[in-house]
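dumping this here so i dont lose it
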């Protein structure tokens, strides 16, 4: 996943933009904005910059205001900002740093210093991004972990509520997995969980659908904009996909292979009922899963 870091240069004077761009373009993808409003637009785009060099004195919205707005918006607040400015008093500098900028470079700037400071803050930003990504990935299966699922559930719940849509979940548990470990060993059990995770991931068809490892040998599907019958059909397809993998399990009581049980819950999220929390959907899916187990495993309870 090699991605070239990008730097947004914001300045109302074209000559300043040009100097900075020349100094940085061999290492970074450069984007430019000649006014505050344009800077906000680039920062809020689908591909936000990894760092912003921000002039302060500009007609219209000044750099302080741009910085304030970026820091107040959770989608842009993590982008490091370096002020590059002719406002050189210590009070101006303190004010800029108080607003959340990571650094402050006085004009006229010395290009090697700009380059060095940009490099430091880009490296830090990329490391932070990587850590955030790793914190949300399960270390055994490399699919999203429970922390990531909890975040997605809240996000999708809010979206469904705003748009008056359905939201569905399927809780998944591997059948007789204790016997698998006892028979084949814990290492083989780990391999099996990786294969189950891959099969689940591969069997999803809509881009919005996702699977996470909920814990142990439990997984969960999050199915946005999906009603009950759609969710049941997806769960059944997922069950069949894993069955078709034919992973041997000699000590399963339900089949000659590894199987899963699934419990489905779906709700049309009503904007007028904010007290209906996503936890209730999870609980319903969990109860359905329990029914699937009681009814004999290797099945979907809708
Ligand atoms: P059921 O059909 O009722 O779900 O039976 P089960 O044996 O799967 O249920 P139980 O909850 O008793 O056992 C779950 C097993 O999953 C026990 C635990 O050791 C195993 N397990 C949980 N996490 C991991 C893991 O990361 N790796 C391995 N190898 N085993 C795990
Ligand atoms: Mg200016
Ligand atoms: Mg379990
Ligand atoms: Mg189990």
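and the seq i came up w/
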């Amino acid at each position: 996943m090699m991605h070239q870091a990008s730097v947004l240069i914001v300045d109302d004077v074209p000559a300043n933009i040009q100097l900075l761009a020349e100094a940085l373009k061999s290492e970074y993808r450069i984007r430019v904005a000649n006014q505050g409003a344009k800077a906000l637009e680039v920062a809020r785009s689908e591909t936000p910059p990894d760092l912003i060099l921000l002039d302060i004195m500009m007609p219209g919205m000044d750099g302080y205001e741009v910085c304030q707005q970026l820091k107040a918006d959770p989608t842009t607040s993590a982008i490091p900002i370096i002020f590059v400015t002719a406002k050189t008093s210590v009070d101006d500098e303190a004010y800029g740093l108080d607003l959340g900028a990571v650094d402050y470079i006085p004009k006229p700037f010395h290009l090697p210093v700009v380059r060095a400071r940009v490099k430091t803050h880009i490296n830090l930003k990329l490391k932070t991004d990587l850590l955030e990504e790793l914190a949300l990935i399960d270390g055994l299966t490399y699919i999203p972990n429970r922390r990531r699922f909890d975040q997605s559930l809240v996000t999708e719940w809010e979206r469904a509520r705003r748009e008056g849509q359905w939201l569905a979940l399927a809780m998944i548990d591997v059948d007789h997995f204790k016997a698998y470990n006892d028979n084949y060993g814990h290492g083989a059990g780990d391999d099996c969980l990786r294969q189950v995770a891959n099969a689940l991931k591969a069997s999803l068809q809509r881009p919005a659908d996702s699977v996470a490892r909920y814990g142990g040998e439990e997984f969960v599907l999050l199915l946005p904009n999906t009603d009950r019958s759609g969710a049941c059909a997806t769960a059944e397809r997922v069950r069949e996909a894993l069955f078709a993998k034919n992973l041997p399990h000699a000590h399963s009581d339900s089949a000659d292979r590894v199987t899963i049980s699934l419990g489905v819950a779906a709700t049309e999220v009503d904007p007028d009922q904010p007290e209906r929390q996503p936890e209730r959907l999870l609980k319903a899916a969990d109860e359905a899963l329990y029914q699937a187990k009681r009814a004999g495993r290797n099945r979907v309870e809708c």
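The longest strand covers residues 166-174.
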